[in-house]
Amino acid sequence: MAFSSILVTGGCGFIGANFVRLLLERGYNNVVVLDKLTYAGRLENLAGMGVPIVVGDIGNLELVRHIVEMNGIDLIVNFAAETHVDQSILNPFVFTETNVRGTHVLLEVAREKKIRFHHISTDEVYGTIEGDHHSLETDILAPRSPYSASKAAADLLVQSYFVTYGLQTTITRGSNNVGAYQFLEKVVPLFATNAMLDLPLPVYGDGLQMRDYTHVSDHCTGILAVLEKGSIGEIYNVGAGQEITNMAMLEVLLETLNKPRSLIRHVTDRAGHDRRYSVSVKKLEALGWKAQYAPKEAVAAAAKWYLENPTYWQPVRESSSFQAYYNRQYAKRLETV
Ligand SMILES: NC(=O)c1ccc[n+]([C@@H]2O[C@H](COP(=O)([O-])OP(=O)(O)OC[C@H]3O[C@@H](n4cnc5c(N)ncnc54)[C@H](O)[C@@H]3O)[C@@H](O)[C@H]2O)c1
Q: How far is Cα 183 from Cα 321, in angstroms, rounded to an integer?
């Protein structure tokens, strides 16, 4: 085993929970999760896994130091973040607090304990991509939302710790993930659950934004490949390596759920909405990794999971906090169409 004891921050969230499951499958049995359990974190995502979960904030230096010392941690994988662009437009400060300052605290503990640090970043740090370019890890960062700006800031801090202190770091920049346990605010589970409830699907603008929809299992195996075989100080993109429009994503979703196109409503676009993301994944593929799902297959698999797991999502849909968010984000937009 490349690592003996792993701290996964944000392990009760969507990708973190899938990654913890992969670690256990691959025989990494000493895994500890640190998660603040924000609205997006759910203990159910790790139900039955037998993994110790510490409920706390990555910004709490004493707590992080204590967990690392008590568990002999030799690798921190940082998934913990505020992750939704629309939330970052409504309430940006918490994004700086967790995504930038929180990451900085983890880096400080990793430096103090001389342990490996892996940071989970996003293709959104490259900003909107023109023409037929596929973002390379060496491209300039041009984030355009408070979310992506906070993620880019964290990437730069991680790189600075590699250069300045010689910390053993790696970064992965994943594209739009879909799959089991994704919180309902994100577009695929939101539209899948709306469709199952015969509610309208509020599509931002013309719906021709291009996204590399990646199955979460491909993202997780990509991260593990970087942990086991990647070069220290390097950054690796992770994605299906091809993109589709949001309208194409919707077609797959409606077909999988056997729901009509008449549910589609084009509503006012998101402010500063990036038109296209696209990553080159050649650098990761050179480590022997390959995505198993094309974007349409990934979306179909995700929609099927929500279809088969109503007891997972129904309580969230019915919660007053989700309904308050949904109304704030979409009620006015839907009124005017
Ligand atoms: N979802 C995507 O499509 C995508 C794509 C690329 C990269 N990423 C990145 O992957 C990571 C995980 O994303 P996700 O979609 O699983 O997010 P998520 O919102 O589902 O989960 C985030 C988790 O972090 C926890 N958290 C938030 N603030 C915390 C804090 N201060 N301290 C401790 N825990 C905290 C939450 O409780 C939650 O469990 C993030 O860093 C995100 O930027 C996501």
A: 13
